[in-house]
Specification:
The chain is an alpha+beta fold. The chain is 42% helix and 12% strand. 18% of the residues are buried.
């Protein structure tokens, strides 16, 4: 999963093909993601891994590793998602109609 996410990041047009991307690479500091590029990347990740990334999750993603850990946890739950309730995150099931 980590490798697939790194491949998705590397496919972004402004990321140099030779640029080193590690789990410690900063999404916004090292890779220069802006809000629109982040939304594009997160939408692709949602579709690929059947997860849901809400705007309040994004503020906790500082590095590629943070994003990978989040996706791994949610995907391991089989399509579950985190939702915010009273300032805390709880796991809830994502149902598709």
């Amino acid at each position: 999963m980590e490798q697939k996410i790194v491949e998705m990041i590397r496919a972004l047009p402004w990321i140099g093909k030779q640029q080193e991307i590690t789990l410690d690479s900063g999404l916004f500091s090292d890779l220069d993601l802006d809000s629109s590029s982040a939304l594009m990347l997160f939408a692709q990740i949602e579709d690929t891994f059947n997860v849901e990334i809400k705007s309040y999750h994004v503020v906790s993603f500082k590095t590629v590793g943070d994003l990978c850990r989040f996706v791994s946890i949610i995907a391991a739950c089989g399509g579950f998602r985190l939702r915010k309730t009273s300032g805390r995150f709880v796991i809830g099931r994502t149902f598709k109609m």
